[in-house]
Design brief:
Order of helices and strands: HHHHH
Largest sheet: none
Bound molecules: zinc ion
Protein name: TraR/DksA C4-type zinc finger protein
Pfam family, one: zf-dskA_traR
Organism: Pelomonas lactea
Structural class: mainly alpha
Oligomer: single chain
Number of strands: 0
Domain Zinc finger DksA/TraR C4-type: 48-79
Shape: globular
Helix content: 55-70%
Keywords: Metal-binding, Zinc, Zinc-finger
Length: 87
Amino acid sequence: MLDVFDRAQAREAELRQDALAEHQRRAAAVLGQEGDAERWRELSAEFCEGTGCGAPIPDRRRQLMPRCRLCVDCQGRKEARLKRSAG
Ligand SMILES: [Zn+2]
């Protein structure tokens, strides 16, 4: 029961991430950072910089989000933390 719920949440987070990546891509174009998309290999971290994590970040994520430094898990945790402290 909880497992199904967790999976639904993970899927939702994934969809949100894609929407966010698309939004950031458009914002980058407006800000004149289009080059980021081509330089994702140097801009994005190859391994997660989250404390005690170091998980490899999938190329797809690095491509979608140039300049990303965290894996999906750490990013999610960070956002949850920010949400908690904001609310
Ligand atoms: Zn991580």
